[in-house]
Specification:
The chain is α/β, with parallel strands linked by helices and about 325 residues long. The protein has 2 domains: about 5-175, Thiolase/Chalcone synthase (Peroxisomal Thiolase, Chain A, domain 1, 3-Layer(aba) Sandwich); about 180-325, Peroxisomal Thiolase, Chain A, domain 1 (3-Layer(aba) Sandwich), CATH 3.40.47.10. It is built from 10 helices and 13 strands. It has helices at about 20-25, 35-40, 55-70, 95-100, 120-130, 205-210, 220-240, 260-270, 280-285, 290-300, and strands at about 5-15, 20, 45, 80-85, 110, 140-145, 165-175, 180-185, 195, 215-220, 250-255, 310-315, 320-325. Helix 3 crosses helix 4 and helix 7 (about 220-240) packs parallel to helix 8 (about 260-270).
Length: about 325
């Protein structure tokens, strides 16, 4: 029987128009453009503004543009997965809301919560529905309105995050292209270092939790950095070794955009020069689920059919992993 693989056949990003620069942040917290740029590589980030606007609004824009770009009818979509840690609400799933806003009526949909690794977790999950022949057209979304959970009085975290969305179309192929292999990990012992303190079943929302600012991102930066810089680099090297790939075989590394130093460490571990690494953290910051699709969207015209691409991410949970993709089309 001919083996089916899931190929990425379209990619689309969306970033809101309002920009928050490092200079703006200098007026909000005790920080400087030089301090932020040196430690993170970030110069500016996009912020979703407007009454009643949430993650689904950015994601629906990306999905509509993707459908138009690929000539795909909403009725053809069988599954929608949204990777997000900033859902519109606790329930229903933001993927349900996105589907409704994008006119997708024949699909089932759900959210994936794996923090910054959510996009690659979602891609691997979606690929299995394709490989088994269950669905022929699947949309995977990475979207987050991180500004909704950032404390803009905390200089350690408010400089890091931005808002964005990206959407991918996956379809079956019998060619030697598409999602070739993946390695995923998680380690719940990392929870104390990166989490949101309140709002869940352990500590429900109350006037006390709101007053104590426990509905914002809590991060112990040094602990998270140390773990991330090791695990993202190791898993990227591991998937290369597992599939007998060498640096010369890799066209692009697409790393999660959390910190420039983590990205550079991953590239060094893989033996890749900087010109083979997709980096746009300077302009968008860490958009969590949105970083990898934003990179693919911006570099789409530079990729060629058959290019070996490594996707890599690390996120709260802790979660981390990598995917080997052979790109499916020439733009």
């Amino acid at each position: 029987m001919t083996k089916l693989r899931a190929a990425i056949t379209g990619i689309q990003g969306y970033v809101p128009p309002d920009i928050l620069t490092n200079k703006d942040l200098e007026n909000m917290v005790e920080t400087s453009d030089e301090w932020i740029l040196t430690r993170t590589g970030i110069r500016e980030r996009h912020i979703l503004k407007g009454e009643g606007l949430g993650t689904s609004d950015m994601a629906a824009r990306a999905v509509k543009l993707l459908l138009e770009k690929t000539g795909t009818s909403p009725d053809e979509i069988g599954l929608v997965i949204c990777a997000t840690v900033t859902p519109d609400m606790m329930f229903p799933a933001t993927a349900n809301i996105i589907s409704d806003k994008a006119g997708i009526k024949n699909a089932f949909s759900f959210d994936m919560n794996a923090a910054c690794s959510g996009l690659i977790y979602s891609l691997v999950t979606a690929s299995k529905f394709i490989e088994t022949g269950t669905y022929k057209k699947v949309i995977v979304i990475g979207a987050d309105k991180m500004s909704s959970i950032v404390d803009y009085t905390n200089r350690e975290t408010c400089v890091l995050f931005g808002d964005a969305a990206g959407a991918m179309l996956l379809e079956p192929t019998t060619e030697e292209i598409g999602i070739m292999d993946s390695i995923l990990f998680s380690d719940g012992s990392g929870t104390p270092h990166l989490h949101m303190k309140a709002g869940g079943s352990v500590k429900p929302s109350s006037i006390e939790t709101v007053t104590a600012k426990e509905h914002f991102i809590y991060q112990e930066g040094q602990a998270v950095f140390k773990f991330a810089v090791t695990k993202m680099a190791d898993v990227s090297a591991e998937i290369m070794a597992k599939n007998h790939l060498h640096a010369k075989d890799i066209a692009w590394l697409v790393p999660h955009q959390a910190n420039l130093r983590i990205i550079e460490a991953t590239a060094r571990r893989m033996g890749l020069s900087r010109d083979k690494v997709m980096i746009n953290i300077e302009r968008y910051g860490n958009t969590t689920g949105g970083t990898i699709p934003l990179c693919l969207w911006e570099w789409e015209k530079k990729m060629k059919k058959g290019d070996n691409i490594i996707l890599a991410a690390f996120g709260g949970g802790f979660t981390w992993g990598s995917i080997w993709v052979k790109w499916a089309y020439d733009s």
